């Protein structure tokens, strides 16, 4: 049984998707803890109601990023995770923290990386006149929103889209793709070679518009 720990800073809809798919599909895994840097993150309450252990490490209580990272790692490691899943965790993590979880930390980012790292991805994609947008699941490396790509989903940018409509379209795909990628990890189906991730069974690592997942 693989032990999954999820980090979030907000509503936690991706966390919910992972927890629900893990249970419904009987993955060889369990979400054993959810941690947040924000005490009022909506996702914490949902997890607690589900009987999942939760913890808050408030970044404002620490004088330095390193001190915050060290306490966060201490809290996480009490749960002995095989995999750390960043699900809308909006703090930059230091190199030492990232190295500690190297090869066992995934993130979802709401753009087709390497385009639009950082914040306001949907607004920037619309402003740039992009005809497609999407999301990326990737292993976390010290450089923000970089790291070996596990899977991507593409959605159209439609005439008249604003940040809200585009982000809703992307989020619906996040809820499909992120659990799928986490499942691949816990089933041992991801292989990393020269910084490129492949699925061991050759399964497609991209969702296109109009193409669902089984
Ligand atoms: C998601 O759209 C996720 O891709 C994004 O935050 C949102 C969290 O939503 N993450 C990032 O921007 C990380 N750079 P959720 O709390 O409902 O899962």
How would you summarize this macromolecular structure in one to three sentences?
This protein has 214 residues and is α/β, with parallel strands linked by helices.
Distance between the termini: 23 Å
CATH architecture level-2 label of the largest domain: 3-Layer(aba) Sandwich
Helix % is: 25-40%
Give the total of domains. Answer: 2
**What is the CATH class of the largest domain?**
Alpha Beta
Number of strands: 10
| Strand numbers in spatial order across the main sheet | 3-2-1-4-5-6-7-10
The CATH superfamily of the largest domain turns out to be Formyl transferase, N-terminal domain
Radius of gyration computed on alpha carbons:
17 Å
Unreliable stretches covering 5 or more consecutive residues:
none
Supply database-style keywords.
214 residues; alpha/beta; Rossmann fold; 2 domains; two-stranded antiparallel sheet; 6 helices; globular; binds glycinamide ribonucleotide
What does this structure look like?
By secondary structure, the chain is an alpha/beta fold. The chain folds into 2 domains: 1-101, Rossmann fold, CATH 3.40.50; 107-214, Formyl transferase, N-terminal domain (Rossmann fold, 3-Layer(aba) Sandwich). It has 6 helices and 10 strands, in the order βαβαβαβαβαββαβββ. It has helices at residues 13-25, 42-49, 65-77, 95-100, 121-127, 163-186, and strands at residues 2-8, 29-36, 53-56, 83-86, 105-109, 132-139, 149-156, 190-193, 196-199, 206-207. The strands form 2 sheets. Strands 3-2-1-4-5-6-7-10 form an 8-stranded mixed beta sheet, sandwiched between helices. A two-stranded antiparallel sheet has the order 8-9. Helix 1 (13-25) runs parallel beside helix 6 (163-186). The model has no long low-confidence stretch (mean pLDDT 96). The structure holds glycinamide ribonucleotide. Glycinamide ribonucleotide is lined by residues 8, 10-14, 87-88, 108-110, 145, 171, 174. Pathway: Purine metabolism; IMP biosynthesis via de novo pathway; N(2)-formyl-N(1)-(5-phospho-D-ribosyl)glycinamide from N(1)-(5-phospho-D-ribosyl)glycinamide (10-formyl THF route): step 1/1. Residues 2-182 form the Formyl transferase N-terminal domain. N(1)-(5-phospho-beta-D-ribosyl)glycinamide binds at residues 12-14. Its EC number is 2.1.2.2. This is Phosphoribosylglycinamide formyltransferase.
């Amino acid at each position: 049984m693989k032990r999954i720990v999820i980090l979030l800073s907000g509503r936690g809809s991706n966390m919910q998707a992972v927890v629900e798919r893990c249970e419904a599909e009987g993955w060889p895994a369990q979400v054993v803890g959810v941690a947040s840097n924000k005490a009022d993150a909506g996702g914490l309450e949902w997890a607690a109601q589900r009987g999942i252990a939760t913890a808050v490490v408030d970044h404002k209580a620490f004088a330095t990023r390193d001190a915050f990272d060290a306490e966060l790692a201490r809290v996480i490691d009490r749960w002995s995770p095989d995999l750390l899943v960043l699900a809308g965790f909006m703090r930059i993590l230091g190199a030492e923290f990232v190295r500690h979880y190297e090869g066992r930390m995934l993130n979802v980012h709401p753009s087709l990386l390497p385009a639009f790292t950082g914040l306001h991805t949907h607004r920037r994609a619309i402003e740039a006149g992009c005809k497609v947008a999407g999301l990326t699941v990737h292993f976390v490396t010290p450089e923000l929103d970089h790291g070996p790509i596990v899977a991507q989903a593409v959605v159209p940018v439609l005439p008249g889209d604003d940040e809200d409509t585009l982000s809703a379209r992307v989020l619906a795909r996040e809820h499909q793709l992120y659990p799928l990628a986490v499942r691949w990890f816990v089933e041992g189906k991801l292989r990393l070679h020269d910084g490129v991730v492949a699925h061991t069974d050759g399964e497609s690592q991209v969702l296109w518009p109009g193409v669902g997942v089984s």
